[in-house]
Amino acid sequence: MHEITTIGYEGTNVADFLQALTDARVALLVDVRALASSRRPGFAKTRLAANLQTVGIEYRHLRGLGTPADGRAAARAGRHGELRDIYLAHLATDTAQADLDVLEGIVRDGKRIALLCFEADPSHCHRSMLADALAQRLPLRIEHLAPHQAPKD
Which CATH number does the domain housing residue 14 bear? Predict the structure, then answer.
């Protein structure tokens, strides 16, 4: 069985975020934000990749697995059912399926990954739906990390 983790950076700082990833033995952070920018210091694409490199974690951005703008607006407004409908429709697109193929290949190669998005609560984030879609393709154990707590063994 393959294993993946997911993580959100909402409400955390870079040091705690990196600690959660290293505690979970993550080798590759897969950024699944449509836009890999952030107003939070240290979490925009270039700076995030540099921060990860300091602890020996690789970075990969799979833009096609991000949430479309209308889905992000629904998430910000707390309309999680609407987010789900929008994201699942997006996940069926050719672009998203191509990046899902890439993600599946990474997981099959045995690299310990974490899927990254913003929301702290994975149930309010598309990364849970993405992990579930990946689990439809291969046997998968999913762990949701929280930067302020150590992962379960």
Answer: 3.40.1010
- Interstrand relation of 2-8 and 58-61 (parallel, antiparallel or unpaired): unpaired
Q: Which domain holds residue 109?
A: 2-144
| pLDDT at 152 exceeding the cut of 60 | no
Our count of domains for the chain comes to 1
Query: Does residue 77 sit within a domain?
Result: yes
Structure confidence at residue 150 (pLDDT): 40
Tell me the average pLDDT of the chain.
Answer: 93
Residue 146 is predicted with a pLDDT of 87
Domain assignment present for residue 49? The answer is yes
